[in-house]
């Protein structure tokens, strides 16, 4: 695996003021900037999105925002980042963010964050990309989600090999280190079982 040059961070457009989360965001920004990793994110100036962008910029790092025109029109676009790419719609935004990134980090967020997480995870399972995916599980925020994945494995809707494709770490430095060493091995048995290959 080549060294990560850019990471797409999926996160909330709200920030709940949690000091533990703020500390984790600062630590992630420090880890990325110290390893010369560009932040690719949704381009917002608010919420967790705004916090991670501000922290990376403050440390002298590089930030690329990708935002659809309708959100730019609502003035939620960040005015102080390295580069802003404006797309026509949400689909183009997600595709562009994925294309620009060598890996994906998931921070706490809501529906949009989970939707983006599961989309790139499904793409990895299908072999559409071979990029690492890491969840920064601050204060056990995503423990119930990982428990649900284990239920999916138990009920045979998800293979353990595919469940294991995603990293689950509370420490940003450990998370990025594991992502640097990632090698994709999705289990494609379910394709063969259905004669799709």
TrEMBL record:
Broad enzyme group: hydrolase
Catalytic activity line of the entry: AMP + H2O = D-ribose 5-phosphate + adenine
Top-level taxonomic group: Bacteria
Family: Belongs to the LOG family.
Cited InterPro entries: LOG, LOG_fam
The keyword Hydrolase is assigned to this record: yes
EC number of this enzyme: 3.2.2.n1
Keyword Hydrolase: yes
Keywords: Cytokinin biosynthesis, Hydrolase
Lineage, highest ranks first: Bacteria, Pseudomonadati, Bacteroidota, Sphingobacteriia, Sphingobacteriales
Protein name: Cytokinin riboside 5'-monophosphate phosphoribohydrolase
NCBIfam families (alphabetical): Rossman fold protein, TIGR00730 family
